[in-house]
# Entry
Amino acid sequence: MAMSESRHESIGRALVESDREAWLMWRTESVVMATGYLPCWGLSFCLYPVKNSPILYIPALEPRDQLPSKGFVVREYPWGVLNSADPWGMLFSMIEKDLENLGISTEKVACLRDNSQTSPNTFSGESPAIDTRFLEKIFSTFNPGNEKTDTALKKLFTIKKENEIENIRLANKVAGTGLQVFYEKARPGLSEAQLSGMVEAAIQEEMGKKGVFYSRAWAMVQSGINTIDSGRFSRTTGRIMEEGEPVLIELATCVNGFWSDLTRVTATSELSPEKREIFTVVWEAQQLALKEVKPGKTTGDIDRAARDYIEARGYGKYFTHATGHHTGFRYHDHGPGIVPGGKEVLEPGMVITIEPGIYCPAKKMGCRIEDNVLVTEKGHETLSDFPKGLTMNR
# Structure
């Protein structure tokens, strides 16, 4: 992996606009965006100056094989080393010394403070805690920034660069291997948990194939009456699938630190006409929303296209969530949602989801169809190029 020149330039511009000379970051998605490197432990820090090479501080136990190949200085601090008295104090001293050598004062160092969410690292079964006293010292010593700084830095996440788009495209391609299994295996007699496991296994098996060094999925499968709740939460259970019922998958896939977020609905066998109608309305609403995705349109324009159609077909009160959100560096990325009245104007390079849904208790049917869409100079490109009918043939 090597540093992206266009990303390097965009970070530099954002810092200059914010009257800052460096950015100290540690959240997984920030490190991925700035360096292309996906941490294992989630304890890697990056000091990114406007001038000079960025510096990566990695814990002693971090694997070395996926570190950036060039463009960065890498320093190790002794987290995880037995009998290390104060690894966090040593890390802070290293950062201070590097800033002094770079001639950057502490008030010129930005850091994002108000975002509590972060995407998982590769050791996602447990994310080690960053010492709270260390973070308190970071925020009291450096400059957490103001609204102008936060806006400039968060904007970096919403506009993807070409190499990042290729990585998101790869994540969608890998997710497609899981969706293939979902459509093939969703049959009566199988449990939601069994189907979920099959999908996740197929995606993880892509690890080690061309261009994929890390591939994980979170396949949340809901069937029959459980689909009604899929607009409120995604949860796989041990429920056994039955004849003639819908099966919905909410599929989060992380490949090399980049994300895809997809939803599909299939059926265990032929659905009743009233259930098929709900599927058709959602499918048609998504098509209308997709037509609105182009530069200059607002998030509210996109939401309105889907929501008005669903309302006109008599299902308005059953569409209970936003029409989409940004994705790519995270499952749910930085940036305003695709919501009623949304004012954010679409720009080339944005990657958003389009995911209208209907969840109707009376008809025992929940349905959502979700794709990842790149805003281009002239319109849009659907990155999740996988069938979205009740079968793979539509």
